[in-house]
Amino acid sequence: MNVRGLGEYIRTQRRDAKLSLRSVSGLAGVSIPYLSQIERGLRKPSAEILQAIAKGLRISAETLYIQAGILDDHRTVPDVATAIVADEGLTERQKQALIQIYEAFRDGTGRVAEETAVAARTVAVLTAQGSPLVRAADAGAATKRTTTKKATKTKAKAR
Fold this sequence. Notes:
The chain is mainly alpha-helical.
């Protein structure tokens, strides 16, 4: 464990969050002198203390564990494709296009394949104002508003 590097990291995080030693020590449940010693690299905190400090700094304990050398930095890449597929606000075509674009960026070549360019244009067209799909959605909303207005007028006349 690089105690000095860990302490500097904690101090940087605290200062970036504009928190005082007193406030972090209170949130973390450790004394001000002990936290100060950790920040100066004079003390080697336990995993439990690191977890408490992370809570006080509002960062993940995993981040401090990695800085302390307790965990290796083998964070997984978020599964973007799963997030895209799970988004109920997107159509299937939009989901497919976004996944193709994402995969093009991940292939590492820096080139955008022709099919990805087509997918990007498709997403642009599908989400552009004036698109037949957008107009259809707008028309549906307008029909709903008109129907609601008619129902309100009918009720008013009946009174």
